[in-house]
Design goal:
single chain; about 140 residues; alpha+beta; HIT family, subunit A; 5-stranded antiparallel beta sheet; about 30% helix; binds 2'-deoxyguanosine-5'-monophosphate
Length: about 140
Amino acid sequence: MPDCIFCKIIEGKLPAQKVYENKDLVAFLDIHPINPGHTLIVPKEHCRNLLDMPERLIEKTFVAAKKIAEAVQKGTNAEGINVGMNNEPASGQVVFHAHIHIIPRYNNDGLKLWPGKPYQDGQAREIQKRILAELPKEIFC
Ligand code: DGP
């Protein structure tokens, strides 16, 4: 994709602090880290986000993410790791080339988890029904 920052990093047209690379994906340090060592795992094939990724690539990317998360945790002496993907602007996605965030965390790093909010009466059952109606049956093989 000509205007994609991550495609340019993958092609070597923009610099990045890479920590891992194979034929399917690359991992490099996020330029605006939540904590030092915040790493992005990026499939080389241009996909918009998780919902656009073929399953074979999801498998490869998440298996690599687990291994890279272990290295990031050890290399930064982190006490925990957040692993996440933002999908679409409402969730915070700003770079529209799929990527997994690996974020080192510390017990006293001052970052709060997202606040939860309680369901209203009947709301959980209703949303459960709507999600079930959207799930393809073959997913439960
Ligand atoms: P997201 O909100 O999930 O789309 O996160 C995009 C992340 O990409 C954000 O944390 C900052 C990072 N980022 C943006 N541009 C660059 C860049 O040119 N180089 C690197 N290394 N990271 C970038």
